[in-house]
Fold:
Amino acid sequence: MQARISNIQRFCIHDGPGIRTTVFFQGCLMNCWWCHNPESIFYNDVNAEKFSTKYTPEELLDEIKKDLIFFDESGGGVTFSGGEPLLQPEFLKAILKLCKSNGIHNTIDTTGFCNKNVIEEISELSDLFLYDLKIINNEFHEKFTGVSNKLPLQNLKYLSKNDKIINIRIPLIPNITDTKENILEIIKFLSSLNRKHKINLLAYHRTSAGKYEKYNIENKMKDTKPTSEMKIETIKNEFFSEGFDVKIGG
Ligand code: SF4
Structure:
């Protein structure tokens, strides 16, 4: 069994607790207008081969274990991100099992766009989810990500109902996800879950613009300016006043 991995980044401090090694899976079924890693979207085509390297679970574990000392000292571990790690579920299950048997804390950074049985099986092996929540209105979600939000919302409800540890990550994309209407709908949806999960507000930035140019990928956001700090503070206060533990940044 092998998975396509686009990158392994060490010493990450925003992808879960402590110092982490973040493993980026190649491939995503969404196509968000603001994607910071557009080259990691390609799946099962010639571009996927260009941007990724194949690993077996054992080979990947060897890479992760190189940082064990930092995990032990900082309370860190490994974070599986992407792309979308749940797109290669059999491999993900295998590496999660290996991490468990080696005492390595795992975090799964996901959009939750997968079938229910996948989220059920993976959640049995996960320590923490970083769960992306983008847009509640399905029509807008389809327009800006290319897919329906039905599965991500259903799967988030499932995880919450089953008392999984979840941090909600909300990308603040100017005039797309940061609108008053969307923020209020997100608050309403999150307030209906089993408990109030921690919230991370992730500001949009343009650091990936060069990648779009370099790889000749259409950049629909190229003239977009980041959300103002004042607006981000206002959004933070909206969550805070509804009783959420909310933080700006990862
Ligand atoms: S879900 Fe994440 S990786 Fe996939 S297209 Fe959207 S931003 Fe990119």
Summary: Residues 89-101 form the longest helix (13 residues).
